[in-house]
Amino acid sequence: MATNVIMPRQGQSVETCIIGKLYKKKGDEVKKGDIILTFETDKAEFDLESPASGVILEVFCKTGDEVAVLSSIAVIGQLGEPTDEFKTTATSGESDITPSPEAVGLTDPRKTEKQIASAGGSERIKISPRARNLASSLGIDISRIKGTGPMGKIVEKDIQNAAADQPATTTGDQTAGRTPDTQEFSVRRISNVRKIIAENMHASLRNSAQLTHHSSANAKKILEYRERLKSDAKKAKGESITINDIVCYAVIKALKIKPELNSHFLTDSIKTFHQVHLAIAVDTERGLMVPVLRNAGSYSLPELSRELKSLADRCKNGNIDPELLSGEAASFTVSNLGAYGVEMFTPVLNLPQTGILGVNTILHRLTQLSDGKIASIPYVGLSLTYDHRAIDGGPASAFLKEVNNQIETFHPEEF
User: Which of 46, 81, 98 is the C-terminal boundary of a domain?
Assistant: First the structure.
């Protein structure tokens, strides 16, 4: 019996997904677990694995389509098996088929869909955020567009079709008989994930009062500990704790002592957390992801190292839980650019969090020791960005000093 491949629901707030790269096409053989395609939500990009082995009998979508969750996107089976029963649930940016609210997991679409008022009156127009942004940038009047998405929603493909139907404008160069040299540059359409990152970064800077303090901590103890770990790891052929793990551990201890930055700013109130929910910035081929480790303060350093590595791997493999990528899920964030040789940077807040610590590369500085001698000492750079609406300079500086203290007085014998 043929197997229906549906678009999975990635989080309770996700209604539609954007089809990315198609790895399989109609007629291709697949095994259970093979990647069929990638898709994007408003938070991240994911791989869709084949739920069964067989032949791709039908594919109901293409790259760029906006597809409702829980709708059919492909059929897998044996050659000759019928697929007509599955076509009735196929939904994409070009489909005329509109599934019921129950089919896409909505009990009241009026409460969950993005809606904006039409220019003509009180009628409400259902439109996806991606389509709305494109319409705004192209100057498209959405009140004249018929949506082809789920429940009549206007999707990006509708806006693209409307733009294609508009009369083409003539540039001054073209009227003069000159053709622009398109070989001087290339244009690459950015992914949905990149758009979301851009929107979030812009919103963060626009909606908060961000200030960054730069400092550095003597990294001699943690480097010595790291060298011993690397030697032990080679002998055991196992994983070892990284400098970033140790810095994150120091941050967690500092947040327990100075909890002012373990908080969310909520405009008229400040929510201070009793547990540290630490987020880490992870650079992936799909874009920047910032997953959170809940209750990070309950882990020993070796346990913290394993959990952080697991989070990063899940982000890179495309199987991270979207709920772990929300800014609201974490109480504080650490972003490490030290591996790239960055000496100082200004990390951007992951709102509504009130603080983020940037970890820089380790540099050697000539320092006078207690006995008067001059020595070359390794220092790790630290850049703390905080929301000045919630935190004043004094408490922020005190927290950064505590992070320095935790690094400089690191005691490996605890483990």
Answer: 98
Distance CA 115, CA 112 (A): 9
Using 50, 70 and 90 to split pLDDT, how confident is the model at 404?
Answer: very high
What pLDDT does 141 receive? 84
The domain boundary residue, chosen from 98, 129, 161:
98
Say which CATH number the domain at 291 has. 3.30.559.10
Cis amide prior to 352 (ω within 30 degrees): yes
Tokens of 211: 């200030």
C-alpha 346/C-alpha 309 separation (Å) is 24
Would you name the residues annotated as active-site residues? 388, 392
Expressed in angstroms, the distance from the first to the final Cα of the chain is 55
Answer whether residue 109 is part of any domain: no
Q: CA triplet 205, 208, 211: central angle to 5 degrees?
A: 80
Q: Does the pTM of the predicted model rise above 0.90?
A: no
CA distances from 117 to 131, 136, 158 (A): 15, 14, 18
Lowest model confidence (mean pLDDT) among 180-184, 188-192, 387-391, 401-405: 180-184
Rounded to 5°, the CA angle 22-25-28 comes to 130
Model confidence pLDDT, tens digit, residues 44-54: 778 888 999 99
| High-pLDDT (> 90) share of the chain, % | 40
Q: Which residues partner with 188 through β-bridges?
A: none
Q: What stretches of 89-236 adopt beta strand conformation (E)? A: 115-117, 124-126, 210-218
Q: Which two tokens stand for residue 374?
A: 């001059």
Contact 222/301 with Cβ under 8 angstroms?
no
